[in-house]
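Suppose a colleague, Dr. K., hands you the sequence of a protein chain of 107 amino acids and asks what its three-dimensional shape might be. Before reaching for any lab equipment, you can write down a predicted structure in token form. Begin with the sequence itself:
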Amino acid sequence: MFALTANDFVLTLAGAVMVLGVIAFVIGLFTLAFKVTNGEFTEISSSSAKLIAKGLSEDVSAMMGNASALLESITQMTKTRAGVGMFLIIVSFILFVVSYYLVSQIL
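The predicted structure, expressed as tokens, is then:
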């Protein structure tokens, strides 16, 4: 087994925290950039809009209520995914600061 000094351990820990920060940042960016504008959301939204238009022309209020509830759920899901992406980016910046603090304590 190799000898590990306290400074080496702290540098290794700072590197691991930095890698976790980079991973969280990339996943957060990916979530914000690609998951929010998913094609399935667009397809479901357009289908719901067609249902609402048909419900208006045929005066079917129950169908309109369900379609508007579906659109509201999609909107809430989009907001939730954006919130998760922002949370991951904030966590990554916190991990970057912790990593910088660990390295600055050694140097």
